[in-house]
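Workshop exercise sheet. Pairs work together: one partner reads the sequence aloud, the other fills in the structure field after running the prediction. Swap roles for the next sheet.
Pair: D.N. / O.F.
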Amino acid sequence: RTEIQNALGKDRYADYEMAKDRDFRQAYSAAKQSKLGTDEAKAAWLMRKEAETQAVALRRNSELEKAQRDTALAAVRKETEAAIRKLYGRNGWKNYARGSGARWLDGISK
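Structure field:
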């Protein structure tokens, strides 16, 4: 791992790691089918990672009542889906959501 990281450098190694990620590959496949590029796939993948991080933090926040937590999780889900829909466009969203592509969003709000 260190050899690869040293050979590629910090930024290219991060891209290398991202390309190995199943979630990124799904976003990339949907982007390519929609005539979009790597930048859109990377943005969608980063949105997913951020939403998942926010969901974990909300679930761990013991100061929130269940109703508050549920409302906040639903908002994260809604905002993330809206952002990815906007990024990919109508047809792109259909490609992204095909199969289990967008099913992870359901896990955000549960």
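Discussion prompt: The mean pLDDT is 93. What would you look at next?
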